[in-house]
Design brief:
Pfam families: DUF5127, GtaA_6_Hairpin. This is Glutaminase GtaA. Keywords: Signal. It comes from Glarea lozoyensis (strain ATCC 20868 / MF5171). The chain is α+β, with helices and mostly antiparallel strands. The chain folds into two domains: 282 residues, Distorted Sandwich (Beta-galactosidase, Chain A, domain 5), CATH 2.70.98; 323 residues, Glycosyltransferase (Alpha/alpha barrel), CATH 1.50.10.10. The chain has 19 helices and 30 strands. The strands form eight sheets. An eleven-stranded mixed β-sheet has the order 1-2-8-9-10-11-21-17-14-13-19. Strands 7-6-12-20-18 form a five-stranded antiparallel β-sheet. The protein has a three-stranded antiparallel β-sheet with strand order 3-4-5. The two termini are 24 Å apart.
Length: 693
């Protein structure tokens, strides 16, 4: 079991103060490869890189936070105690505080800092996840709370500082930023920053080229603010402990005298009492996505616009909601931790808690009070919109937390294809190559994964029904579901040379695992047909899938050297993760004999490496989401082995980046010669065990 780590001083020498290096920090339940700070959407997605390749070991002071793609999103924090200035976040210059501890939950990251042996700081980053409350989930905002108290019993004069830079507002740092300062009607003060020339539905280096960023806090008597160059604003606090309440009106490129937007708070003299300050960071975009649906290509508004009359109202609501939001967040944290430990032990909870914000951080609610959609960005790998074979590994987290959100993900795919915007008879791969443009593929030239995507859509549609009993949904989409099943009947048992979702591994004919998905998809449609009164169709598809699974067993299994399924038919020297077996158990189809489950479970233990089981015999890498699918339907001892290795990988992963799902099973590092896939929503698949309950 992998619970806690104290990193040695040598790991930190390049970035940390001497005191911090000497002390070290605990990390509970693990030291993630990157620590989520403000992670709520594809654009509000800022992390502290921690792995040795690009990170500093998980210390908040000494390194700038970064957008998931690697660009700096400068976020600074300083504190003055008795006239001496320290850094508690970022790298603005002064000596670092001593980080004593770090811990994370599903929604929060918490740091404990010692400041010169005089005062202590508790710093909490919370990105709320409220799947049962669309109003709150629609807001792309995150909290930062800093609490300060004396630890030596003496009186100390304390001032606190924080800022963000204009680097948050655009990936093109040569673009001109514009900013302002204001106070909401409910007394929340804010810096508002944006790209001066707004480019709607456009990205640069995966950062949005449109929308307004708000950095906010409560308007109090002890508060001061300032905007200006990084040197001027930060220098003002370092020298005086208070900002100048001045506004820089020289709008300029982001990388020219880097504009920053700061707040300072004077706590006066503290001794026994605790002082705290709350900040919020968030993005508002009135229009969120371009979608080719039943009405053609139209812009879709961010869902928050249906609940709030202005951006400022949303800013004030979110800030003042912190008390309730914190209680809700702790409730979700406790639920995920409790359920994960019960299902797979502490190692499993280590993984699910870290995956939660990353998974939801690829999504955004759009639409209005009449019709809502949930759009998903294929972060890191392609940047596609609504990729079906990314939704598939993502969807267990929705089945566990809020199944209705799965419908909101599938709806745009159904609507586009049922409106005649896609010419192929099989399911599309994605809704557009460049998020947030869900404009489809009217030419039919999306990435060809026909067997993969037909199976995925059938499986997920039935999974949604089984948890909601929404029979009308099955009836409404029966014709296109049946169309996709016809494709599976002709193509699933003997798959042609094609790619699967693991497209990076290359194409292959007669893929055992891919065939299994198609056969399970066919049986899922038999169930859908029976549920909707199409009994003859249901009986026919039941007969076909039963026949196919018998043939599949004969073609795909080998007794030597240890019984197992092969990577491709009649190829006994090969093997692979049979993760599509999970769908049979998820849907309670009982199509695949228990002997196949038992055989695979026993086999995985014989090929387990330091950090898991390789995806297949062609390469040494694996995928953590598919390992979770496999573990969910494996025997208890095999499940424990998978959980131990995944928790070890999280704790020891050398990559300084948000969780990748693709890594070397032997070393835990990036696959040799690969692209660096990171921050992908497929970690929603870590909830595979919980989705079964």
């Amino acid at each position: 079991m992998w619970l806690k780590k104290v990193l040695p001083a040598a790991f930190l020498v390049c970035v940390s103060s001497a005191d911090q290096q000497a002390a070290g920090s605990s990390f509970t339940p693990a030291r993630p490869p990157a620590i989520p700070l403000a992670v709520k959407s594809p654009y509000l997605n800022t992390w502290l890189q921690a792995g040795r390749e690009g990170g500093n070991g998980g210390y908040l002071a000494g390194q700038w936070p970064q957008f998931w793609a690697g660009q700096i999103t400068a976020w600074a924090g300083m504190i003055r105690v008795d006239g001496e200035t320290y850094t508690w976040m970022g790298s603005p210059g002064p000596q670092s505080v001593t980080q004593k501890a770090f811990s994370y939950t599903a929604t929060s990251s918490q740091f404990t800092m010692d400041v010169g042996g005089k005062v202590e700081m508790n710093i909490t980053f919370t990105s709320p996840i409220t799947p049962d409350d669309m109003k709150r989930q629609s807001l792309l905002f995150s909290y930062l709370e800093a609490r300060v108290y004396s630890i030596d019993g003496a009186k100390h004069k304390v001032q606190l500082y924080t800022d963000i830079s204009a680097e948050w507002v655009a990936g093109d740092h040569g673009a001109v930023a514009q900013w302002g300062y204001g106070v909401t009607s409910d007394n929340v003060t804010y810096h508002k920053v944006a790209r001066q020339t707004q480019l709607e539905f456009s990205e640069t280096s995966d950062q949005a080229d449109w929308g307004n960023w708000y950095y906010s806090t409560k308007n109090r008597d002890n508060l001061a603010y300032q905007s200006g160059s990084d040197r001027d604003v930060r220098g003002q606090f370092q020298s005086t402990g208070k900002l100048a309440n001045t506004k820089d009106t020289n709008y300029r490129p982001i990388n020219q005298q880097y504009p920053v937007f700061g707040f300072s708070s004077d706590f006066g003299t503290i001794q026994q009492e605790t002082h705290s300050t709350l900040y919020t960071i968030g993005l508002t975009q009135e229009q969120a996505v371009q979608f080719d649906g039943a009405s053609g290509v139209v812009p879709l508004p961010s869902l928050w616009t249906s609940y709030f009359s202005s951006e400022e109202e949303a800013v004030g609501f979110f800030y003042n909601d912190y008390g309730g939001a914190s209680r809700t967040a702790r409730g979700l944290d406790n639920k995920i931790n409790r359920d994960s430990i019960a299902a797979g032990g502490q190692d499993y909870a280590t993984a699910t808690s870290l995956a939660t914000r990353q998974a939801f951080g690829a999504t955004q609610l759009v639409g209005n009070l009449t019709k809502q959609y949930l759009f998903l960005k294929e972060i890191s790998s392609d940047g596609n919109t609504q990729t079906v074979d990314v939704i598939f590994p993502f969807h267990p987290i929705l089945l566990y937390l809020q199944p209705s959100y799965l419908k909101l993900l599938l709806d745009p795919l159904f609507e586009n294809q049922e409106s005649g915007h896609y010419p192929n008879m099989y399911s599309m791969h994605d809704l557009g190559s460049h998020y947030p443009n869900a404009t489809g593929h009217a030419d039919g030239n999306d990435e060809p994964q026909p067997l993969e995507e037909c199976g995925n859509m059938l499986i997920m549609t039935l999974a949604y029904y089984q948890r909601t009993l929404d029979i009308a949904y099955l009836s409404a989409h029966f014709p296109i579901l049946d169309q996709w099943t016809q494709y599976l009947i002709t193509s699933a048992l003997i798959p042609a040379d094609q790619i699967s979702t693991d497209d990076f591994a290359g194409s292959l004919a007669n893929q055992t695992n891919l065939a299994l998905k198609g056969i399970i998809g066919t049986r899922a449609m038999a169930t859908i047909a029976n549920l909707t009164g199409h009994y003859e169709v249901g009986a026919n598809y039941t007969t076909i899938s039963s026949s196919y699974i018998q043939s599949w067993q004969n073609l795909s299994t080998t007794p030597l050297p240890i019984p197992h399924t092969t990577l491709s038919y009649n190829n006994p020297s090969t093997h692979g993760l049979l993760y599509n077996l999970y769908a049979d158990r998820l849907l309670s189809l009982n199509l695949v004999p228990q002997g196949v489950y038992d055989m695979q479970s026993a086999f995985y233990g014989t090929i387990m490496e330091t950090y898991g089981v390789p995806l297949d015999t062609r390469h040494g890498y694996t995928k953590a989401d598919w390992e979770m699918f496999v573990a969910a339907v494996a025997g208890e001892s095999t499940k424990v082995m998978f959980m131990e290795r995944i928790a070890r990988w999280i704790d020891e992963m050398p990559i300084g980046a948000p969780l990748t799902d693709w890594y070397d099973a032997g070393s835990g590092d990036w696959p040799i010669g690969s692209g660096h896939f990171t921050a992908r929503p497929v970690v929603g698949g870590f909830f595979a065990l919980l989705a079964l309950d």
